[in-house]
Amino acid sequence: MSTPKIPPPGLLIMSVLSARWNEVWPGLLGELETRFGPAGHVSELFPFDQTGYYDEELGTPIGRRLLAFDALRPLDELARIKLDTNAIEAAHAAGTRRCFNLDPGFLTLERLVLATGKNFSHRIYLGQGIWADLTLIWQRGRWSDFPWTFPDYAGPEMKSRLTKLRQLYKTKLNT
After folding, report:
1. Buried b vs exposed e over 53-88: b needs ≥16 C-beta within 10 Å?
2. Pairing of strands 111-116, 124-127
3. Residue range 28-76, pLDDT digits in tens
4. Threshold 0.90, pTM exceeds
5. What is the pLDDT of residues 152-171, one digit of tens each?
6. What is the CA radius of gyration of the chain?
7. Burial of 31 (0-12, 13-18, 19+ CB in 10 A)
8. In terms of Cα–Cα distance, which of 60, 69, 63, 29 is closest to 44?
9. Torsion over CA of 104, 116, 164 and 62, rounded to 10 degrees?
């Protein structure tokens, strides 16, 4: 019999996609920090060009920022966090078109799990219409992806960024 054990908290990360950065930033950052606490890491703006999936809705060219929040959080908050980010997106939408896309997830020593409202064979239902997407795992000193990993997360640039965030997380766990 296994004995239930609460895991260590995770590092809340968030990918922010938009083609309207001048309009939404830094106000959006302030809103996210009000809701989730200070961001200990805010990446520079970098291109999101691995897919055209969001082009029609968000416009082009789409840029991305990757955030990591200071406070480590219980992993079972992921569904609520995704519902919160959905509400923020909706509050800023122009009709049915979002101004930005927020993708929250938890980074731990072992994995990166993103939250989504879309079911798929490899996703685990968390409740409230939200699924957990096992996106990457850490093994043998590097990130490993899966056949379903989004191309932007499978690429070396994102994996390098996530490795730095994993080190930040590891430091936070040890302090």
Report:
1. ebeeebeeebbbbbbbbeebbebebbbebbebbbeb
2. unpaired
3. 999 999 999 999 999 999 999 888 888 999 999 999 999 999 999 999 9
4. yes
5. 999 999 999 999 999 999 99
6. 16
7. middle
8. 63
9. -80
